[in-house]
Write a structure and sequence with these properties.
174 residues; mainly alpha; two-stranded antiparallel sheet
Length: 174
Amino acid sequence: MSKDVWKSLVDEVQVAVMQLQNVSDAVDEAAAARLGVNRTDMRCMGCVFALGPMTAGELAGAARLSPSAATIAIDRLERAGYARRVRDVNDRRRVTVVPTPQAEYVAQAVWGQLSEEDEAGLAGHTVGELILIRDFLRATVSRHARQADRIRQGETLAEGNGVPPVRDAETPQP
């Protein structure tokens, strides 16, 4: 394969990843609006569904939130009926966040059909291809999470490189 063909395919994959991010964002936005929660709450729910019951501290790390922001999100999810705090039977100081039956119901209603369609879309792939896809997606998630951290920490988008200065919510926009 020529270098130009390889580069063209890499560009197409990168565009497809960007499109996947955008459409996933649209699904999450629509689901959050439909469920009456905000996007941070949705991210927390997703972490609990993907990783299982966890403490508030573990959830903060998984959702990339401060401990206080995670606690506030858990409070909102409890009020909405989508999560509850459960004391550990072996360590009464340990409390985990678990989804409620209502959360499991709405997760199935919102994402069940998509999950089935994704599974059908992968049905024709070999085990080797599925491993390749899985490994690519895991590595992409890791790279993107690192980039989000770099942006938050100001390691990228340095002023003076043609990037406008970071503005806070109080700064009037031109």
